[in-house]
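Hi, here's the filled form for the chain we discussed.

Project: internal
Contact: R.S.
Residues: 338
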Amino acid sequence: MVQALRSARGHLAKAAQLLRSRTAESQSLPRPMSLPAALAAFMPPASDLQQRPPGRSATSAASAPPPEATTQPPHPSHPTRHYRAIWLSDIHLGTAGCQANYLLDFLKHNESDQLYLVGDIIDGWQLRRGWYWPQSHNDVVQKLLRKARKGTEVIYVPGNHDEVARQFDGLAFGDITVREDAVHVTAAGRRLWVVHGDLFDGVVQHARWLAYLGDSLYTLILAINRHFNRIRARLGFPYWSLSQYLKHQVKNAVNYINSFEQAMVDEARRRGCDGVICGHIHKAEIREVDGQLYCNDGDWVESLSALVETQDGELQIVYWTTLLDAPATAGRRTVATA
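And the returned structure, exactly as it came back:
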């Protein structure tokens, strides 16, 4: 972990140095090298820059080849896609790490019959420490309320960061229904248990102080991630999650994720469901675990991902790392198919 942080700090320092010397180099060199080409020597390797492993088939996860990444050039007239259902979680409104502009862009270009908000929509932990609520966060709330008013069935399943909302289980606010958990039936007839997942996190349940400490460290890493990607954007590189990269290099974190997935599918089986849809660990995934379908819709502070169900009942993970309504920049919108 320490080595990975030092490596990230080195990337930031070198990028800043190149930015400061750009003008001087352009005057001294007869044919200046492009800045992206100059950075290629010390940027993370191409294998690390792949933002997320693609989703795999629920029936042949081990053998199915990864789907081709699709790139859609940013354009304000990009057509709106309509899904049977969309799952969003871990938005963390009220924190500086929330990628509200990307989420707003996603909500503008994607509609659904049902919309599940799978916990940690508002970060009450951070708001208790200090108030942070820019206009873009308010716009997200208004956008969700507007979708509910226009006929989308919006179901809010609170998580640990917005657990205060659990006391309103079964009530509706502004056409949004609050549920402790839910069961979604796909077009193919599969029953999927929808829950945030924090109740199966031993740290959150039995060592709350440790969870708060981890949350503070995580916030620091996200701050580094924001500065890192600000430099990448200026240099013409697409969004890349430094925080995800660091987390996946730590063996204990990988073991924790595997244990979490196993606990979730075991509980879904006990409830008579065919699988589970959750959030909480900020790692988007679609795969089979012991004959059960495990789906995690990711988050909107690191992976910028959502889980969707097409009208044909196909589950997909959508990574929204390009602002379609922004000026054309290097970026990618990747769709991973289940």
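Let me know if anything looks off before we file it.
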